[in-house]
Amino acid sequence: MTDTSRSSGEHNSHFADFFGWYFSPVGLAFGFGLAVAGFLTAIDRPRLALLLLIIDVAVVVPWKFMRHQNELRRFAADTSADTAALRTRLEETLPRRRIQALLKTERRRDREKLDRIRARIARTEERQRADSQTAAEFRAKAGPRIGDQGNEMSDQRKRLEHQARQIEHQARQIEQQAEQLRLQKAQLDAQPKERQRAHEWTVSALERTSRRHDATSAQLRQLEESMRLLQRNQSEVTSELQFQLGIGRQYVFGLGTGRSGTVSLSRLLKAQASSSVTHEVRPLLPWKYDQGLIDERLDYLAQRPTRMVGDVAYYYLPYVRYIAERLPEARFVCMRRNREMVIDSQMRKTQNYNLWADHDGSRWDLNEIWDPTMPSYEAMEKEDAIARYWDEYNEETLQLSEELGDRFRIFDLEQTFHDAEAVGVLLDHVGIAREHQNVVVDIHENALPQAPPA
Predict the structure, then answer these.
(1) pLDDT for 6-48, tens place per residue?
(2) pTM to 2 decimals?
(3) Which of 210, 148, 216 is nearest to 181 (CA)?
(4) Which of 365, 369, 345 has the alpha carbon at shortest distance from 353?
(5) CA-to-CA separations, 354 to 15, 271, 365, 367, in angstroms, rounded
(6) DSSP letter, residue 358
(7) I need a labelling partner for 33 at 20 to 30 A (CA). Which of 11, 337, 435, 453 fits?
(8) How far is CA 239 from CA 95, 354, 361, 437, in A?
(9) Strand 408-412 to 331-336 pairing
């Protein structure tokens, strides 16, 4: 309502109040009293006129007072109703404003998330273009050399096969000659006169044949050794070319709550051929997701000059989905240990620290390196916080196992490193063929002394 309409409404209200009072019984009586008082004054009766005015005023003033009091009560009631209506409107408006603010915040977050996704897609496309260009350059440079080397190996193989056929032919001829000599010896033995001379000649011929046979056998062994060397060289050249072209590279990431066999797992994987798998390589990754750090870590691992590369650490759990998306060939091994044993081992390992809580250092020592690598829980005792950490870690790994299928497997510590078959299954999972596996059992690295009995 505007000021003009408000003032017009108030004027009409005063006008209505005046005429309503004038035409009321009290107003008419008051007017009649004034008329009579005027008449008495006109006929020279002033005292009666004054008395009538006093009576008239004594009746009208209380009535007017009561009327105004009723009007004030109505005004107060109307004001209370307006106030309640205004409060209701405010209560209805504030949530909408809050919802609008939340929606605005969500839109801003969605835009930021979309920008991050676009940036990630741009980085991935740029990396793919760079990899394609590098592979094309390598093929352009290495293609002629590889072709020449392959042709040379093919020619060498043909020459060796030809020598083998010649040696086999010579061996058959020698055997035929030996058979003929044996027949001649039998015939000469039947002739009494020349038996001795024939015997000596036959023995000499057999010795010469035996020496030739030994030489032929030595040549055959040399030929077999040359063939094995050729096959090994071909295998090594093939493996080197696959590595340089980025073919056959295997990424492995180990996980576990900590104090659950991750060091032993890294030792087992490192013991395999052409493997570079580390344990908690520096810098450590924070538990709070950091896109830049995980990209730097994956780029660093890609530079290792082995077929199998990776790292083992508990803090990879928040990054598993991104790693699986960026590296479709990556495999994940999660070591799981008994809950109570993990809690006891962590309590003894971190006696002066509490990595699972935000604190000021008054009760526990601060550790700027390891504190950021664990989740923090508020207002909990250290042992309860470790138990909650184990429960949440186990629940998340089970969820990842369902999402990623055979790329993410969980192995029990107590049933794995003491059983050769279980170790073989683990190595099968990370992509190592059985004939190339180095099965090592009874690995027990980074163990703590036994706790004293309670």
Answers:
(1) 445 544 554 445 555 556 666 677 677 778 777 777 777 777 7
(2) 0.50
(3) 210
(4) 365
(5) 81, 34, 8, 9
(6) -
(7) 11
(8) 66, 47, 53, 17
(9) parallel
Give the tokens for residue 49.
């006129």
What sign has the CA pseudo-torsion 6, 7, 8, 10? positive
Range with the poorest average pLDDT among 163-167, 263-267, 389-393: 163-167
Question: What local confidence, expressed as pLDDT, does residue 195 receive?
Answer: 62
Exposed/middle/buried for residue 318 (C-beta within 10 Å: 0-12, 13-18, 19+): middle
* Structure-block tokens of residue 35: 């008329």
On whether the CB atoms of residues 364 and 354 are closer than 8 A, the answer is yes
**Tokens 């990630």 — which residue?**
120
User: Do residues 312 and 297 make contact, with C-beta atoms less than 8 angstroms apart?
Assistant: no
Residue at token pair 């190339």: 436
Tokens 């960026």 found at: 326
Task: Identify the CA nearest to 279 among candidates 55, 50, 446.
Answer: 446
Query: What residues have CB less than 8 Å from 198, skipping those under 6 apart?
Result: 184, 185, 188, 189, 191
CA atoms within 13 A on the CB side of 386: 22
pLDDT (tens digit per residue) in 379-402: 789 999 999 999 999 999 999 999
Angstrom distance (rounded) from CA 7 to CA 20:
20
d(CA 240, CA 146): 11
Q: What angle do CA 157, 161, 167 make, to 5 degrees?
A: 145
Residue type (1 letter), 448: L
Distance set, CA 41 to CA 37, 49, 140 (Å): 6, 6, 133
**Phi, psi (degrees; rounded to nearest 5) at 11:** -60, -45
Residue range 110-159, pLDDT digits in tens = 788 888 878 878 887 887 787 678 767 766 765 566 566 667 777 777 88
Both tokens assigned to 347: 């309590």
User: Half-sphere exposure of 326 toward its Cβ, with a 13 Å CA cutoff?
Assistant: 22
Residue 386 and residue 346 in contact, taking contact as beta carbons nearer than 8 Å: yes
**Residue whose structure tokens are 């990209």:** 295
| Contacts with 436 (C-beta within 8 Å, 6 or more apart), sequence order | 272, 273
